[in-house]
Specification:
It is a single chain. This protein is α+β, with helices and mostly antiparallel strands. It folds into two domains: 61 residues, Orthogonal Bundle (Arc Repressor Mutant, subunit A), CATH 1.10.10.10; 178 residues, GAF domain (Beta-Lactamase). The protein contains ten helices and eight strands. It has a six-stranded antiparallel β-sheet, sandwiched between helices. Strands 1-2 form a two-stranded antiparallel sheet. Strand 6 and strand 7 form a beta hairpin. Helix 1 crosses helix 3, helix 2 packs across helix 3 and helix 6 packs antiparallel against helix 10.
């Protein structure tokens, strides 16, 4: 294998292991490469869309391009296989878009979806990322993550819109409610005009593997409809969780 290709692969693996964006100096220390070599390699990854640079810190992280290239592999994963029929049933029954998301870094990553048939619908492409703190899908996942990670996310919380949760204290209270009732809701928090409900999917031993979300325009997802869809969502993920637990 070419030495340059090998170094590039090692760099990709190092970026994948990092918990968030990482600097060139740290990458150099981890890989035992000089900074100029690391910069040249990571700059190539950025130019070709495989990595991105944080404009505030100058640090680097992988983009979703590698994930998008691996969508075919993801299709074979047990979670996606188990949830796909439920996504289809719930999309048909609710008339809204259904999503399957997982935690990826500090965001929720959409790994499967079934679009609504309605003329006015929410467009969420595969590979799209959603804020963990500011959406129903994100909070359904975040509420069940390790306490240290949850505390870190709460401490760094900032609202995106003037609607819904506005302070870290409110977020902490809401996450406790999500854990208690088994589902999350949001209205106009991720983007004005978009609302949704979500519930966590549990595997063997109770570990949260992902979350199912039903999302649509706020004009259709009024409070009464949110309550109805939330119950549907919670019932649906219980079925999936029981299936996954039986499979072991």
């Amino acid at each position: 294998m070419s030495a340059t290709v090998e170094k590039a692969l090692q760099l990709i693996e190092a970026l994948a292991r990092s918990n968030g964006p990482i600097g060139v100096s740290q990458l150099g220390r981890d890989l035992k490469l000089n900074k100029s070599t690391v910069y040249r390699l990571v700059d190539t990854l950025v130019r070709h869309g495989y990595a991105r640079q944080d404009p505030d810190t100058g640090r680097y992280a992988l983009s979703v391009k590698l994930w998008e290239m691996g969508v075919g592999v993801v299709r074979g994963l047990e979670l996606r296989q188990a949830v796909r029929p439920v996504l289809e049933v719930e999309a048909e029954a609710s008339g809204e878009t259904t999503l399957l998301g997982i935690v990826d870094g500090r965001e929720a990553l959409i790994i499967d979806k079934v679009d609504s048939r309605q003329p006015l619908q929410i467009f969420s492409p595969l590979g799209a990322r959603v804020a963990l703190c500011n959406s129903s899908l994100g909070r359904a996942l975040l509420a069940f993550q390790p306490p240290a990670f949850v505390a870190e996310m709460i401490a760094g919380f900032a609202p995106i819109t003037p609607h819904g949760i506005q302070t870290p204290e409110e977020l902490a209270t809401e996450l406790a409610k999500v854990r208690q009732r088994g589902g999350a809701t949001s209205a106009d928090e991720w983007q004005v005009g978009i609302s949704g409900v979500a519930a966590p999917i549990q595997g063997q031993g109770g570990a949260v593997l992902g979350a199912l979300c039903i999302t649509g325009p706020t004009s259709r997802l009024v409070p009464e409809r949110i309550a109805e869809l939330s119950e549907r969502c919670i019932r649906a993920v219980r079925q999936v969780s029981e299936l996954l637990e039986r499979r072991g």
